[in-house]
Amino acid sequence: MYRGHFTKIPIIVYTIIIFVLSSMESGGAFNVLGVDKILHLIEFGLYAVLMNIAIISSSNKYLIMNNCYYTVLLSMVYAASDEIHQFFVPTRDCSIYDFMADVIGILIFLGIFKIFLRVVKSSYVFGKVKNS
């Protein structure tokens, strides 16, 4: 099997996990002092990283060249659909503030991930990492 297919499995599984958790009724335990916003930030930040891995490992050169754009776009679309979905779940609500936390997480985590990739790539280019 082509290696690129394996890199899509984590984003598919994570998408399903988010959907299932969003379908459960909220107990309100994380609504204290913005903890829920931090969880939204982390949740969709990780989503963006997994989405970016799936995109950069695809065979589509256009997607690869524009990977940040498509990562942000697809992650934001899923974040918005998740908020709309929660409107129909008892004890949950559709919140623009949750969506904003999702978008901030997407941008922060993607930025950190891209910096990490550049550091790793430059380490290999300049011979700082030796082959075993």
Question: Short description, anyone?
Answer:
This protein has 132 residues and is mostly helical. The chain has six helices and no strands.
Could you give the topology of this structure?
Layout: H1 3-6, H2 9-23, H3 35-56, H4 61-65, H5 67-87, H6 96-125
Helix pairs in contact: 2-3, 3-5, 3-6, 5-6
Description of the molecule:
The protein is mostly helical. The chain has one domain (3-20, 40-124). It is 73% helix and 0% strand. The protein is built from six helices and no strands. It has helices spanning 3-6, 9-23, 35-56, 61-65, 67-87, 96-125. Helix 2 (9-23) runs antiparallel to helix 3 and helix 3 packs across helix 6.
Mean pLDDT: 89
Major sheet description: none
| Shape by Cα distribution | elongated
Q: What is the CA-based Rg, rounded?
A: 17 Å
**Portion of residues within helices:** over 70%
Which stretches of 5+ consecutive residues score pLDDT under 50?
Answer: none
Order of helices and strands: HHHHHH
β-strand amount: under 5%
